Amino acid sequence: MTGNTIRIRKNPEMNTQTDPMLPSPVLKTTVENKSVWKRFLTRFFYGCIMITAFIVILKLGPAYISLLVFALTIGCLNEITKIAHAKYSLCEITWYKWLHWYFILLSLYYFVGEVLLNHFEEVMREIEVVRDLSSYHRFISYSLYCTGLMLFVLTLHKSQYRLQFSLFAWTHLTILFLVTQGSIAIHTLLDGVYWLIYPACMVICNDIMAYMFGVVFGKTPLIRLSPKKTWEGFVGGFVATMLFGLLLSKVLYNFPNIICPSELTPDFGIRVSTCEPSYVFNKQSYEVFPLISDVSSLFGVPITHIRFRPIYLHGMVFAMFASLVAPFGGFFCSGLKRAFGLKDFGDLIPGHGGIIDRFDCHIFNQLFVFVYYQSFIKSSSPSTLLRLIDHLAPDSQVRFYEVLRQSLQERQLLV
Description:
Distance between the termini: 130 Å
Number of strands: 6
């Protein structure tokens, strides 16, 4: 009718034509799925290459493994240094780069020297120059550190105090988290490649299995710092790592070149020594709890002692830490990347990112292995004791001999 406006109400259920320029939901989902599987295949392919290379280096012996650890440490240092330089590239800070690498190289000199002296002091002291350096190694290191500290103070600028001290702290945190970890890894593997290989395999297994369980079953987010991490992947990785850890610990103790410590050769090479396996790799007898003994007696099979290799128990501890605590090293690095607006620390390894992206979980793990090994597993060797006695004054050495002889006679170990 005239003067009336006719409005047509559209049925919401009526199919409407979509914009042909916009991707359909089905197409978008298909593209996302293809992208996920492409990333997975890329990670899998280069992961297999890294594992193969690792096995080859393992066959070459502890010297090459130490070089690998050293190279990875330098690579991580380079990546973490680039972050600071990129963040503050517009600021002209006199001598910062030189001082940064000065402290890095000084820390490498100190820690590597400590490792070599701890394991090969007797051989190294046979060379006059090395003997002099080793006698005053710590004093030389501290003197060089004081020199660097004075140079840093002399280069301070009034307008850049806060920035310079922030970078100074950055350098020392880099030393704490990377140089210290690398030296600890070398220190541990010289006591036996097992103490580096086994924990590293636990972290690698947990990383792979958590990723696979997350891709297949992941639905529940685990932590905000890493949106792609899920509870399903976390739990699946834990179970798989515990099972793999038990299996691997049953295999590795059969290889002497893995469980024996390293020694320095006359031409200053490093090789695996010939040794009797440590007590942790041999079966030991342990008394069971009285409750277990009483219950077993009720069924006519009294159990008073059990025999097993202690390495099984230690291996389960390493596997548990690698799957429950070590991932927080990855979360820590994820938070660091987000603080600087980074997706990855680098692009050296396709599908994985940089070196730190691949080895972030090892940051906490290797330090734990070192502390646990020193606290619960390692026993003092006669060579270590003799080295300490050699540093005593002559009258103290005589007094030590008399006390030791009296103790052995009282226990009827010496006639």
